[in-house]
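Is NAP placement plausible here? Inputs below.
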Amino acid sequence: MSPLDRDATVHAIDVVGWFEQPSLTMDRCLQDLQKVIDSGECRPVPHMVYSADQIYAAMDGVLAGQEAGKTVIVLDDGVSLDRAPEQPVLDPTATYLVVGGLDGFGAETARHLVRRGARHLTLVSRRGTARNQDAAALVSSLSDQGVQVDARAVDISDPKTVDQLFRDLDAGGRRLAGVVHAAMVLDDDEVTDLSVERYLTVLNPKLTGALLLDSHTRERNLDFFAMYSSFAALLGNRRQASYSAASLTLENIARQRRHDGLPATVLQLGAISDAGYVLRTGITSVMSDYGILPMTSSQALDRLDMLLHHPDTTVTAVVAESRGHEQALMAFLPAVTAPRTATLVHTSDAGADDSLLPRLRAAATAEEARPILLDALTSWLASGLHTTPDRVDVSRRIDQLGADSLTATELMGHIRRHTGCAIPAPEVMTASLTSIAATVLHHLRPESQS
Ligand SMILES: NC(=O)c1ccc[n+]([C@@H]2O[C@H](COP(=O)([O-])OP(=O)(O)OC[C@H]3O[C@@H](n4cnc5c(N)ncnc54)[C@H](OP(=O)(O)O)[C@@H]3O)[C@@H](O)[C@H]2O)c1
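Reply from A.M.:
I modeled the complex. Tokens:
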């Protein structure tokens, strides 16, 4: 900050805009810049260069704080990419444990492990096979294939029962080679309507279960430790606060395990069409209406195969297809338009309205154009703030509504794309939508005095 002592002024310049609207001035600036770089007058900041196939080493360096300056990844020729083998081959002499493996997608997982070579399975759920006809049918069909199945009633959130489970696994004399945590209980409601008991009903099987599985397997030589999470962890879901929290925490457990050199994998699933909760409760078409097009178990399990072979990936999202249903998805899960997922939603622009400019120009007066523009501004800002347009007060400064510089930059981008009016981000940041609308209208309709 020492230059400021000498009364220097700081200007924020949006160079991205230069590239969007090429001009002679910009060409000249770039040529001048090239000259000072070529002459050595302008030196690069300290940096380390890695090729793309060293990206994990580069990220490890960044995370460990070992890199001075910038880390640069170059996409030179000759990058060698390892292709994961198509299918993992499991150890036929070892045991594989699937928690929640007697029902739904957990049962499909058990079948899948057998297809990949497993011959000894321990499948657990609270009911076991006792009050569960599907579970009994699963065990009998797997046994017919020559698989040794130990199906038992275990509450994975109960420490004593889990202790006993692992004692019995040890007594069996086989190496425990893999764990899949597929247990879940749902109790969806507004967070304000949930009691602590209801919250824990959802949290315990997933989270406490995962913690117990983690602590009981740390000293074992596992090949994999996989847990099923949900798109709710990635994007949130209003009536699933407990489920989102539990799912998200699984991912942190996985990261901690990876950090400690232990295997861990999390599959964030969308809706599954042919097994489990979504099928059982008949909400497949509702999910589609919300823009989450279900995938089959087999599609999801292909991803599990891929993950089990990829030692460097901890969490993978399999958030189903949404093509053609983007607007529904954005209405259901506004967070999908956040920068980290926006590019995955195949739409040009969240809440975009390509007819905006013609409609503004067609309005007879600035007064007529104002509400049209304000509507668009409000929906863009609401999307950036992950809220609904009716909660945006157009008369308050947007920073006071919770917009940060990123949100302001996004809003600025929307304005420029849809109206051609370039307002600097710092100006947007401290203005209300009403005054931004006035500035844009003044730009579009200079006769407007507002
Ligand atoms: N199905 C989907 O569309 C979908 C979407 C996203 C994520 N997922 C994830 O995929 C996994 C499986 O989902 P699903 O739809 O197959 O669920 P599901 O059909 O409801 O099966 C859940 C299983 O968990 C068992 N379970 C519940 N609490 C338990 C506990 N405390 N201890 C041991 N077992 C317990 C249940 O059996 P008991 O009742 O006998 O205990 C049941 O076998 C879950 O982790 C879920 O988060 C599924």
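Short version: The chain is about 45% helix and 10% strand.
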